[in-house]
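Ticket #4471: structure output looks truncated?

Reporter: J.K.
Steps to reproduce: submitted the chain below (162 residues) through the standard prediction queue, then opened the result file.
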Amino acid sequence: MSGCYALIVAAGRGHRFGGEVPKQYRRLGGQAVLRRSARAFLAHPDVTGVRVVIHPDDRALYDEAVQGLALLEPVPGGAERQDSARLGLESLAPQTPDAVLIHDAARPFPDAALIARTIAALKDHDGAIAALPVTDTLKREDATRAIAGTVERAGLWRAQTP
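Returned output as attached by the reporter:
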């Protein structure tokens, strides 16, 4: 076994976001969103290595976005997000990781405490996700799109992944 690796899934096209450049390569505060995501994991003392799964057509965008970062060689993604995650996991098999954190490249602000809590949860469980309790009021609609009731929030969580 050889530690905890981060797998950043960046192969999506982000059609809902719009534009010609996928959102993970757009600039936010002067840096590509992907770069911000990668730097957070590279800076964490409990993360051994970071690999990014990219769309096969995005190599030039990727190289520009992560220039100078000490990342493992990227791997091409698949047709769907779950395919990309699987391909990324398979690519890490030679490293025999103790744990793998899978992160969406379009989420540029994973903080060190969140990463640490997720790694800690993996010490006692086979899997864990970063999530926040639902605090907003949730409504259920009927067939006419009228409000039919309020959804009980107890036990509901907002996953920080798609």
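Triage note (M.O.): checked the attachment and the full token line is present. The longest helix spans residues 112-124.
Status: closed, working as intended.
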